[in-house]
Design a protein that fits this description.
With about 450 residues, this protein is mainly α. The chain has helices at about 15-35, 40-50, 55-80, 85-100, 105-125, 130-135, 140-165, 175-195, 200-205, 225-230, 235-245, 245-265, 270-295, 300-320, 330-360, 365-395, 400-415, 425-430; strands spanning about 10, 200, 205-210, 215, 440. The strands form two sheets. The protein has a three-stranded antiparallel sheet. A hairpin with a 4-residue loop joins strand 3 (about 205-210) and strand 4. Helix 1 packs antiparallel against helix 8 and helix 3 (about 55-80) packs antiparallel against helix 16 (about 365-395). GO terms for molecular function: transmembrane transporter activity. Keywords: Membrane, Transmembrane, Transmembrane helix. This is OPA family glycerol-3-phosphate transporter-like MFS transporter. It is a multi-pass membrane protein.
């Protein structure tokens, strides 16, 4: 009998079984992201290794380049071989590699460990987004991707929360965090391996409206071509726009605690608490906005409204960076509102991107998210190199946050290039008659 993590389903799971597989995919995203978490340890790691911010930025950039290229390889590979066959062994290996962080005592050791970890983690996590798509029909797509984003976002929240609680217990030893990360991740990896399965290539070629209603089936069509996505301007508008939008998210992921401790003179535990407030509202709105978006079957209007709100709050935060006496309460409230607004814009966008790509070819979801990871991580590379230089020259994070504001504006400008209705009236006008949508039992499945 094949091991559970190599199972391949030839019938689409429904009800509780589908939700179980979807939950495992979300949990895998969380664990892969948590395995690579480092932000809570940075304020303690830098002085311990006698390393300045620019050096740390270059090390992080190196790891991000490795992860970006690894993801671009793993995405298309998951379209060919299946998601789970790649995910499970690499996720277990990443959890073991997390323990090696405790052996780091020089910047050279750090760059080696982070690059190896990024290689394995980058390949593993790239398979999780297409896996979530596989188990989420369009009527629940934004909610599903909202939960999926709980992986990268939840990892930051959990790592910040655990650090604020445990660092004082271990005399602020940053190594303690990687022992905790490795232990929890290894346990979770075993649980996921025993409770997940792949869809067959035939099922992955389908586009589902609901669990039982198929609106397109690409099986039997000419072989999928990478150029279908790589030469499409809409795809690049999506990934460039979201990379610009996520500049602040990427900044606080890598430097959040450091910004708080150096600008506002807060302790490491206080900084982790403030960041936890950002993440908890982000997690909440990822789901709530996704659910609302699925109910209305609208994507772009949510991304537009909440990205504008993000822009306004981000400008206010930039002004706070000019006042080092800003209270912890003010920073926590501002961060929570900002995190909430960004989450509400993000989950509908993920559904929009996945569905726009499905409309081009549903067999290329691995490549779809491989492109996403490549561009977003290259944006992270630019950030980790440029941001520390700007901070060093200006003596403040304020200028860089203004750059992040411009990034959100770019996302808003590119939004008209995405596909999908803005209103319910437009949605009704684009829907096909009932006869044009086939159930899974129908012999012919047509595209809406």
């Amino acid at each position: 009998m094949a091991l559970s993590w190599t199972r391949e389903l030839d019938e689409y799971p429904v009800g509780g079984q589908r939700r179980k597989f979807l939950f495992m995919a979300v949990l895998a995203s969380l664990i892969c992201s948590y395995e690579a978490a480092i932000a809570p340890a940075v304020p303690l790691l830098l002085p311990d290794l006698h390393m300045d911010l620019v050096t740390y930025g270059l090390i992080t950039a190196s790891a991000l380049v490795v992860g970006a290229l690894a993801g671009m390889v793993a995405g298309p590979l998951s379209d060919k071989l299946g998601r789970v066959r790649i995910l499970i062994p690499l996720m277990g290996l990443t959890s073991i590699l997390a323990f090696t962080m405790t052996l780091v005592d020089t910047p050279t050791h750090l760059v080696i460990v982070r690059c190896v970890l990024a290689l394995v983690e980058g390949m593993a996590i790239t398979t999780t987004a297409p896996l979530v798509r596989d188990y989420s029909p369009r009527m629940g797509r934004a909610q599903a991707f909202g939960f999926w984003a709980w992986g990268p976002v939840g990892a930051n929240f959990i790592s910040a929360g655990i650090a604020s609680l445990t660092l004082p217990m271990f005399n602020n030893a940053w190594q303690s965090q990687f022992i905790i990360i490795g232990t929890l991740s290894l346990i979770a990896s075993v649980v996921i391996a025993l409770n997940i399965a792949d869809l067959s290539p035939r099922l992955r070629a389908e586009v589902l409206e609901t669990e039982k209603v198929v609106i397109e089936n690409a099986e039997g069509a000419p072989p999928a071509k990478f150029s279908t996505l790589l030469t499409n301007p809409m795809v690049w508008a999506h990934v460039i726009g979201i990379s610009a939008f996520l500049l602040l998210y990427l900044t606080v992921t890598g430097f959040g605690q450091l910004i708080i401790t150096t600008t506002f003179h807060k302790s490491a535990a206080e900084a982790s608490f403030i960041m936890a407030m950002f993440w908890v509202l982000n997690l909440t709105t990822l789901f709530l906005a996704g659910r609302w978006s699925d109910t209305l079957q609208l994507r772009r209007i949510f991304s537009l409204v909440f990205s504008v709100l993000s822009l306004v709050v981000m400008i206010y935060f930039a002004t706070l960076l000019g006042d080092p006496n800003t209270s912890t309460v003010t920073l926590a409230i501002t961060g929570a509102i900002l995190g909430g607004a960004m989450g509400a814009a993000y989950s509908p966008w993920m559904a929009n991107y996945s569905e726009n790509s499905e409309d081009l070819d549903p067999r290329l979801q691995g490549l779809t998210w491989g492109i996403f990871y490549l561009v977003v991580r290259l944006a992270s590379v630019a950030l980790t190199i440029i941001a520390p230089i700007i901070v060093k020259q200006t003596g403040s994070w304020q200028t860089w946050i203004i750059v992040c504001v411009v990034g959100v504006a770019v996302f808003i400008v590119l939004m008209p290039f995405y596909k999908g209705p803005w209103t319910r009236a437009q949605l009704a006008a684009t829907q096909a008659p009932v006869g044009d949508i086939s159930s899974r039992e129908d012999p012919v499945v047509t595209k809406r």
